[in-house]
TrEMBL record:
Record-annotated Carbohydrate kinase PfkB domain positions: 191-286
Alphabetical UniProt keywords: Kinase, Transferase
Entry keyword annotation includes DNA-binding: no
GO molecular function, one term: kinase activity
Record carries keyword Membrane: no
InterPro entries: Carboh/pur_kinase_PfkB_CS, PfkB_dom, Ribokinase-like
Protein name listed in UniProt: PfkB family carbohydrate kinase
Length: 313
């Protein structure tokens, strides 16, 4: 079987409206003057992972439901401009959208419009199967239709990854994703005991690697039954906001995995890419390139003594 696609990104396509606010939580007021502007741009979690992988030289294909609306056109234009293949299944309810409030300390509060989905939404199997069978790896967003795709994806033999985002370790919605994937990403923000959650995911599911990102504190990597703290990487410019940092981490980690790097090296790739993302305004989409990633990893090795990357084919 020929697997010409490096990564199929499933789900997570949509549009965000970015609002920089003076503080979070935002105190009640009749109105606020937003001098920085209120801007709508294409890019939710699946879009950002696809853009990140493509910038790193991975042959990437994105599959999701999209509406025949202006928001859907923004998503299509993003992929077209970046040369990323996109298969859009018609979504009568419209393209997913959200409002992100970003505070001065770079924290984000996201408001998701759940009206753009229906309980019976599905990715058609005759669309999904051939794309998955042509892919070395599938990265699965935790949007509703993707949960129903997990059994089919496992049948295809492609590697699977997912990002549980701010899972608390208890919400049952996330469990099918956590237990089906070979590589699991999540944020440590809502975890009282990250190690327990990571080991629970690996112990009950299929995960070979589980990573909990912890912002400025770095990340926690569980691989080969060993938990390791991954130190943070100093961003190359001032931190503006953290939107997309987790997606950048996942994309760079998967790049490392698919080019044969060990888990600790993959995590360093992720840390470098995540730090880069924190220097990019939410209103822009500017993923780190392959050359820049490898150069910054080499710089990090010289600065800290961390193991550096071998030559990547």
């Amino acid at each position: 079987m020929s697997r010409d696609i490096d990564v199929l990104v499933l789900g997570g396509a949509g549009v965000d409206t970015i609002v920089y606010v003076p503080e979070l939580p935002l105190p009640y007021a009749d109105s606020y003057m937003i001098d920085s502007g209120i801007r709508t741009r294409a890019g939710q979690t699946g879009d950002f992972v696809a853009v990140g992988l493509s910038a790193l030289g991975m042959n990437t294909h994105h599959l999701d439901l999209l509406g025949a609306d202006p928001e859907g056109e923004l998503v299509r234009a993003l992929h077209r401009d970046r040369g990323i293949a996109l298969t859009a299944v018609p979504q009568p309810a419209g393209t997913k959208r959200a409002v992100n409030l970003v505070g001065p300390d770079s924290r984000r509060l996201s408001l998701y419009d759940t009206s753009r989905a229906h309980a019976d939404d599905r990715i058609p199997p005759d669309t999904l199967r051939p794309l998955a069978e042509a892919s070395r790896h599938v990265h699965v967003s935790i949007t509703h239709p993707c949960a129903h795709a997990l059994p089919l994806l496992r049948e295809t033999g492609a590697g699977l990854s997912t990002d549980l985002h701010d899972w608390d370790g208890e919400n049952p919605y996330h469990e099918p994703f956590a237990l089906a994937a070979d590589v699991v990403f999540l944020s440590a923000a809502a975890l009282t005991d990250p190690e327990r959650t990571l080991r629970d995911i690996a112990g009950r599911g299929r995960a070979e690697v589980v990573v909990a990102t912890a912002g400025a504190e770095g990340a926690y990597l569980l691989a080969d039954d060993r938990l390791t703290h991954i130190p943070p990487v100093t961003p190359p410019a001032p931190v503006i906001d953290s939107n997309g940092a987790g997606d950048a981490f996942a994309a760079a980690f998967l790049f490392g995995r698919l080019t044969g790097e060990p888990p600790h090296r993959c995590a360093l790739y992720g840390a470098v890419a995540g730090a880069h993302a924190c220097t990019v305004p939410s209103t822009e989409t500017d993923a780190i390139t392959r050359d820049a990633l490898l150069a910054r990893v080499a710089d990090e090795r010289r600065r800290t003594g961390r193991p550096g990357p071998p030559t990547v084919p």
